[in-house]
Amino acid sequence: MKKTFAAFVAVATIAGSLASTPASAQRGVAAGVAAGLIGGAIVGGAIASSRPAYGGPVYVEEAPYPACRMVRERFWDGYDWRYRRVEVCN
């Protein structure tokens, strides 16, 4: 729905700029520059909203995890709770 609306706005903007009266030297350059900036912003916004910014999904094979890993284990030593690192293998 957004893509269709954006395309319609872009086409309407271009058609409107072509159908308008030609610029004359009496109006100066500022009117042409302002119209160009507004039209460019509308068309650029329509193009930018038609696709995701991140480029789409990427499928990557997951790295194999090692069979063993180090974990922290809490234990009671008779006086206080302490921590030690223990190797756990699957």
Structure description:
Helices cover about 40% and strands about 20% of the residues. By secondary structure, it is α+β, with helices and mostly antiparallel strands. A hairpin with a 4-residue loop joins strand 1 (about 70-75) and strand 2. Keywords: Membrane, Signal, Transmembrane, Transmembrane helix.
Map the helices and strands.
Layout: H1 2-19, H2 30-48, E1 68-76, E2 81-89
Antiparallel strand pairs: 1-2
Signal peptide: 1-25
Keywords: Membrane, Signal, Transmembrane, Transmembrane helix
Transmembrane segments: 29-48
Order of helices and strands: HHEE
Side-by-side strand order of the widest sheet: 1-2
From the alpha carbons, calculate the radius of gyration and give it in angstroms. 32 Å
Mind describing the biggest β-sheet?
Answer: 2 strands, antiparallel
Q: What distinguishing features does this structure have?
A:
alpha+beta; two-stranded antiparallel ribbon; 2 strands; 90 residues
Give a short summary of the structure:
The chain crosses the membrane at residues 29-48. Residues 1-25 form the signal peptide. The chain has 90 residues and is an alpha+beta fold.
